[in-house]
Amino acid sequence: MLDANRLCPGCMNENTGEKVCSICGYDIGQKNPENCLNVKFILKSKYLIGKVLDASSEGITYLAWDGNLNEPVNIKEYYPLGIATRNPDKTVSVGEGKSFSFNEGLLEFLELNRKLCTLELPAVLPIYDVFEDNGTAYVVFAQNTGITLSSFLERNSGMLKWEQARPLFLPLIDTVITLNNNRIIHGGISPESITVSRDGKLKLTNISIIETRFASEMFATAIYPGCAAIEQYSTEKGNIGAFSDVYGISSTLFRVLIGTLPPPANERMSEDKMSIPSHFADELPRQVLVAIANGLQLKLSARTNSVEQFKDELVYGETQENIRKAEIRKKQKEIDNSKRIAEKISEPKKDTSSVKYALIAASCTAGAFIIIGGILALTVLKDYFFPKKVTEEKEINSMPSVASIGEYESGADIVKVKTYAVPDLTGKYFSQIDEDEACEDLVIVIGDKKFSDTAPRGTICGQSVTAGKEVVKDTEISVTISLGPKKIKMANVTGLKEDEAKLELLKQGFLYENIEIIEKYDTDKTPETVIEQFPESGESVNTDIAVKIYVNSYKDENAEEN
């Protein structure tokens, strides 16, 4: 049986009888807003409701205590603003004419959270329970102890460098890719819907039903100015897609790396004032700038259309611009060929009447010589024309070879086409190709990614057409990107600070989510540095294994006093 008076509703720590909690400062006599569940309300006989944490267009989130787990949790109640009404007994009813919208949203709320429960994504808070009660539905999930990304940035000089942001965001981006692949569109990705947990990892929060992510007539709209795409200002639900999440991630990265949010999309439609200061353009890797620019395009036809493709652009520099250039070149080539054929057909035919009789006379003369030549060949010159050892191979070798450098059409001359030597692309980063003049007339695409013991991570280690070969304009060349060596010698990170150690491991190619930080107390070693690691330094390992680094939790109090 839950003891409603034992815990503080503001922090769920033990209440020692104080009127004001000495831990969180919560006034024990404080009440939740009238349209919410009461403080100390018992839900489903095992959840003790605490203070309200958030009220959004989709529902209300409470701090609560799980009587089975004996730990604090968060509970979100489906309570769409403007549609739901709270009854005196704290059940939920629906306003007149709004039942359909409420019930449709309720079913989507249940389906969404049940699906999230099965996915178990690392960058999403774990879901413990989903159930219906009080005429509505609830989802119980792990307590969010992190701070918003906005607050985190304010405490850290307002922005991060790409080297700092990269290991934070890649696991989050992978989570969004999984969500989209399971037909879940977040639609509200922003610095306010991302939290930074105590272990330094990003968590994606506020995953809501899609009706709250666009200008719906029935549901209150949760749009984040600067992070919401232009299609979210429309009333058409079908306009929202993975490309909307691309815009949200791009806007958030813009805020993290540049220090400000882009102007709201609806304002950009009339006058686009979005720009990147020159010193940021010089400092940030080119593929990062290109990826963000493509992700922030207002028009869907110009914007990167999937988060997976956005990740490729961000990490490997595979941009939509190259694809668009290829399409334009292909169309131009078709137009040029059509014009050339049309010009050939329209050429005036030569008057052959003046030479007709000359040709007849020449044919008669040639025929006489052929008859005489045939007689000589069969008699006097027989051995010369028909030697006893004639090989088919000599006949084949004597045939002239014709280079395939053009196209031939019946009734037209052979058209010679300019060719281009394929450059050697190995060793280069994909983002450098746009600046290479030798690649201007070719279409370069990423075809594969593989481990390589010789090519540094991120560089090109193979190409479908060998360097030096002559090809026609717009030939597509597929390149292979190196993932770095499959096996490497483990770096020595002992003695480094936690962030320095992580960065060194990421440079070696280890996955961020595979790096585990473990605290270990040792008074004989330098405080707050890595004192042990697994695998050990110099050991030959695969880059996809789990790595453990033990950070000294001992703090030298004497040094702090000095």
Question: What does this entry look like structurally?
Answer:
This protein has 562 residues and is an alpha+beta fold. It folds into 4 domains: 42-142, Phosphorylase Kinase, domain 1, CATH 3.30.200.20; 147-317, Transferase(Phosphotransferase), domain 1 (Orthogonal Bundle); 419-482, Trypsin Inhibitor V, Chain A, CATH 3.30.10.20; 487-561, Trypsin Inhibitor V, Chain A. It is 30% helix and 19% strand. The chain has helices at residues 99-119, 149-155, 162-181, 242-258, 265-268, 278-283, 286-295, 307-316, 320-345, 356-378, 382-385, 392-397, 498-508, 557-561, and strands at residues 42-43, 47-55, 59-66, 71-78, 84-86, 92-94, 127-133, 136-142, 147-148, 194-196, 202-204, 406-407, 415-416, 419-421, 443-450, 460-463, 470-472, 476-482, 487-489, 515-520, 530-534, 540-542, 547-552. Helix 3 (162-181) packs antiparallel against helix 4 and helix 4 crosses helix 7.
- What CATH calls the topology of the largest domain is Transferase(Phosphotransferase), domain 1
Total count of strands: 23
In DSSP terms (H or I, runs of 4 or more residues), the helix count works out at 14
- The secondary structure category is alpha+beta
CATH superfamily of the largest domain: Transferase(Phosphotransferase) domain 1
Name the average pLDDT.
81
Strand order, biggest sheet? 1-2-3-4-8-7
* Highest-level CATH class of the largest domain: Mainly Alpha
Biggest beta sheet attributes:
6 strands, antiparallel
For the record, the CATH architecture of the largest domain stands as Orthogonal Bundle
Q: Ends: how far apart?
A: 51 Å
